[in-house]
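User: Quick sanity check before I run a bigger batch. Here is a single chain. Can you write out its predicted 3D structure?
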Amino acid sequence: MIGPRFRCASCGNDATEGRLGFEGRTCSKCIAFFEERAKWRAYDEILVSSLPAVDPNDPIDFVRAGGDVICADVCGCGRPYRRHPFDPRHVDRDGNPYLHVLCDRRLVKL
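Assistant: Done. Predicted structure follows.
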């Protein structure tokens, strides 16, 4: 039996399955999206925290690529490069990181 219809608090679409949360009821598609995003956020934190220290005088070894390129590394994450975490060790003049860290720890400038 299908449950009563409701409007998802996250996406605004009508749904019949979901969970009641702090801001209202969330549909099952949004729940899956948020759980997937949380999984990748945890993975990215581990990846960035495991990077070795760098000497600011050493040249930076990176490649340039488009943000829509899909990561096809051994891990097979399938995320576009722009969805990978920034490397906090390398910042521009304004203090903003500008290099992304891929799953194999290569640095990419988009």
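The chain is about 20% helix and 20% strand.

User: Great, the batch can go ahead then.
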